[in-house]
């Protein structure tokens, strides 16, 4: 078994997560590429990493369900036997609605994936990384959004609120495990050109919002991934509890 560090990227099959996986594979991480349903996309990312000489594995699992989480972490334990990094990237939006129109089912799924999924993955990661538990330390990067500060009125306040929860969680967990070799940080992407907008029924959202962004353009998945790779790396060895906007000034 390789001694290279192991990184779990939730939602690593597409968008920002896929960029993180590719860059991490090139940087020498063994990458667990998590996905929920798009196995072809996950396998394509894994193939790209392996073709470039890196090491990667597709790992199926819905982070919003206990069964999915059990599959993710039993695969990591069984295949790699270690975990050194976690990018809590899997996240969903839903179609634009006012808060007074949202169903309880929608709210439950939003919080199950974006909040519970991230917190449960972080718990499992700390149990494996923290020196308190016999681990060798590690780094966790959580994906928030500038929506956490703007609120996303009229579109998805539930999504914005779920990212607000991630922000408080990041501050608290960072302080809790700072003396145990585990760093916890977050990035706040602005409007990034990925398929998440189409999944919320607004395929042109990134392009349509360009004029509202100080830099007058949406960002790319790679531009967010570079910041995540920095926070994961030893170059950020004294950075914990930090939030980095990657938003073109938005
Ligand atoms: P995306 O293009 O829609 O990709 C989502 C990824 O998450 C896919 O790999 C998908 O897997 C996976 N996924 C979805 N639900 C999952 C679940 N329940 N369990 C495990 N994996 C799941 O998303 P993105 O735009 O790259 O966004 C990534 C993160 O950045 C999210 O947390 C998002 O909130 C945040 N963010 C994005 C933007 C933006 O403008 N794009 C802005 C701010 C913040 P499948 O391929 O199997 O479907």
Q: Mean of the pLDDT scores?
A: 98
* CATH architecture name: 3-Layer(aba) Sandwich
H and E string: EHEHEHEHEHHEHHHE
Strand order in space, largest sheet: 3-2-1-4-5-6-7
Work out the oligomeric state of the chains in this entry.
single chain
Specify the CATH homologous superfamily. Answer: NAD(P)-binding Rossmann-like Domain
Stretches where pLDDT falls below 50 for ≥5 residues? none
Structure classification: alpha/beta
The first-to-last residue Cα distance is 44 Å
- Gross morphology is globular
Radius of gyration, CA atoms, in whole angstroms: 17 Å
The largest sheet, given as strand count, sense and whether it forms a barrel, is: 7 strands, parallel
* Total domains: 1
The CATH topology turns out to be Rossmann fold
**What fraction of residues sit in β-strands?**
15-25%
Regarding CATH, which class?
Alpha Beta
Report on the architecture of this protein:
The protein has 250 residues and is an alpha/beta fold. It has helices at 15-26, 39-51, 66-79, 104-129, 147-150, 157-177, 196-199, 205-208, 221-232; strands at 6-9, 30-35, 55-60, 85-88, 138-143, 182-189, 243-246. It has a seven-stranded parallel β-sheet, sandwiched between helices. It is globular, with a radius of gyration of 17 Å. The mean pLDDT is 98. Bound molecules: NADP nicotinamide-adenine-dinucleotide phosphate (NAP). NADP nicotinamide-adenine-dinucleotide phosphate (NAP) is lined by residues 10-11, 13-17, 34-38, 41, 62-64, 89-92, 113, 143, 145, 189, 191-192, 194-196, 199.
